[in-house]
Amino acid sequence: MRIYTHEDCRAHDPGAGHAERPERLDAVLAALRPLPGLHWHDAPLATRAQLARVHAEGYVDAILDAEVAGHLRLDEDTVMSPGSAQAASRAAGAGVAAVDWVLQGPGRRAFCAVRPPGHHALAGAAMGFCLFNSIAVAAAHALAEHGLQRVAIADFDVHHGNGTQDIFLAEPRVLFLSSHQSPLYPGTGGLGDNRPGHVLNAPLPPGSGGRELLAAWRSTLLPALDAFAPQLLLVSAGFDAHRLDPLAQLELEADDYAALTADLLAVAARHGEGRVVSMLEGGYSLEGLADSCRAHVKALSA
After folding, report:
1. Cα–Cα dist 27/302, whole Å
2. What is the 3-state composition of the chain as percent helix, strand, coil, each rounded to the nearest 5?
3. Which residues partner with 202 through β-bridges?
4. Exposure of 16 by Cβ count < 10 A (0-12 exposed, 13-18 middle, 19+ buried)?
5. pLDDT tens digits for 164-175?
6. Cβ(135)–Cβ(123) below 8 Å
7. Cα–Cα distance for residue pair 60/93, rounded to 1 Å
8. Is residue 110 classed as helix, strand or coil in its secondary structure?
């Protein structure tokens, strides 16, 4: 199994006190380095053309060409520093490289240990800590360069992946599945957003734990994934539903992520020759993030 990461992903620094801090990546890498059987690779930079498959060209240019001295606030929560554009490009490039690799043979899996996260980024705007929607870039690359007809995105971040859903709302070749806390930022992902066979959300009330999350996936989301029969499974792996996370109120433990990962792998094995690319999204308790990410990657590499 491959891990894609890059030192540049540490250079995105939204400033003191910001939840999406460079130490998040340090915690993830420290948790993963001791695990056996992992092969480490540098994440390349995404090209402008790859980014422009899901983002407006003017927006891509604005981010990549921004001259930032200190900090540049893009919205209430999203801040650029001098290293942010490079970090975001590496994060998106990791997904592209991982897709290229896993599609070369059956049973291949990859995890992208990158930041900033991406699933809130819209086609033409930054949002919710996110600059480029890395998972969307990866999915669009699989469609455009590999000719796939069925790509699924499973998002278990505690916050709804509104950007991903919005980008692929008119793309029937992509199935978007999400479990998330509701009510919670960004306020999307209600049952009214659902489109059978294309978009399926499973909002969970505050206080829900692993039992409720796994029930939602096993009763609703996984059967939809099975019916879609994805040729490639992409995972928006946010770990902020962990009970220690300061930005939400779900009660997951690391073992719950391992169990959900095993369920997702079983579907991928039936339909996509086991090919999976997982990309780091949220997770803001360093302890909860490290423990959960380790459990997820151990399950992925089993």
Report:
1. 22
2. 40, 20, 45
3. 179
4. exposed
5. 999 999 999 999
6. no
7. 14
8. strand
Structure tokens at 213: 């999350």
What are the structural domains of the chain? 2-300 (3.40.800.20)
Q: Are 204 and 219 in contact (CB under 8 A)?
A: no
Q: What is the DSSP letter of 46?
A: P
Spatial CB neighbours of 209, under 8 Å, sequence gap ≥ 6: 243, 250, 251, 252, 253, 256
Nearest to 83 by CA among 45, 113, 134: 45
Catalytic residue among 6, 119, 120, 198: 120
Contact 270, 226 (CB under 8 A): yes
How confident is the model over 190-233, as pLDDT tens digits? 999 999 999 999 999 999 999 999 999 999 999 999 999 999 99
Quick check: helix, strand or coil at residue 109? strand
Q: For CA atoms 127, 129, 132, 133, give the dihedral sign.
A: negative
Question: Which residues have CB under 8 Å from 224's CB, separation 6+?
Answer: 175, 177, 197, 200
Known catalytic residue at 120? yes
Q: Cis omega (within 30 of 0) on the bond before 106?
A: no
